[in-house]
Design goal:
Blueprint lengths: L2 H4 L6 E5 L13 H6 E4 L2 E4 H13 L2 E4 L10 H13 L18 E7 L7 H9 L6 E8 L7 H8 L4 E2 L4 E4 L6 H11 L4
Parallel strand pairs: 1-4, 1-5, 5-6, 6-7, 6-8
Antiparallel strand pairs: 2-3
Helix pairs in contact: 3-7
Length: 193
């Protein structure tokens, strides 16, 4: 299926994602750094970022990276510890910028890594700062073994007036080489109007 055939309404769809690649150097990565990134032609992408870019390319639509005002550390142990503290304290990190024309979108893909069997806390901020009423939310997640956990149900609780796609895209970090074909197959199964 060609892009235009799949998505005649690209202007009404946006791909959003949160991703913290632990390095931008494709050489001499630690195992933790390698787990958090995918390298294509020498360019380093966070796993979730890579999936978001694949979806954006296939759907031929806009993309928005969910970023916080305060930068997250790239050191694995520090990042993991901060993620745990934020989760335990139910923190809502302040986002760097807004999607100005959010109301114009009908379909919002939301991508995130699974941290501690949940979203990273910036996803909570994102879900609470926008009104997703009557919009379709399509989750996609990268993980190291926890899959989706209960994140789809959390989206439904946070945005009860939206329609949340149950067939979320889920990919294990060791399967990133298969991501292009997996994303394409998944998008072909979705009914996006």
């Amino acid at each position: 299926m060609k892009m235009n055939e799949r998505n005649a309404n690209a202007s009404k769809i946006i791909v959003t994602y949160f991703s913290i690649p632990e390095t931008d150097n494709p050489n001499n990565m630690t195992q933790n750094e390698a787990n958090s990134v995918h390298v294509v032609n020498g360019e380093v992408f966070g796993n979730t970022q890579y999936v978001a870019l694949l979806i954006q390319k296939e759907m031929n639509t806009n993309i928005y990276r969910i970023e916080t005002k305060i930068d997250y550390p790239l050191d694995h142990t520090t990042l993991v510890n901060l993620g745990k503290v934020e989760k335990n304290n139910d923190v809502r990190p302040e986002l760097k910028n807004k999607i100005e024309d959010f109301e114009e979108y009908d379909v919002i893909f939301i991508g995130y890594p699974n941290w501690y069997a949940d979203f990273p806390m910036p996803i909570y901020t994102f879900l609470e700062e926008y009104d997703f009423s009557n919009k379709k939310i399509i989750p996609f997640v990268t993980h190291g073994g926890s899959g989706l956990s209960n994140t789809v149900q959390t989206i439904e609780r946070k945005q009860p007036k939206s329609k949340v796609e149950k067939n979320a895209f889920v990919i294990y970090r060791d399967d990133m080489d298969k991501a292009p074909s997996m994303v394409n197959e998944w998008l072909n199964k979705l009914k996006i109007k």
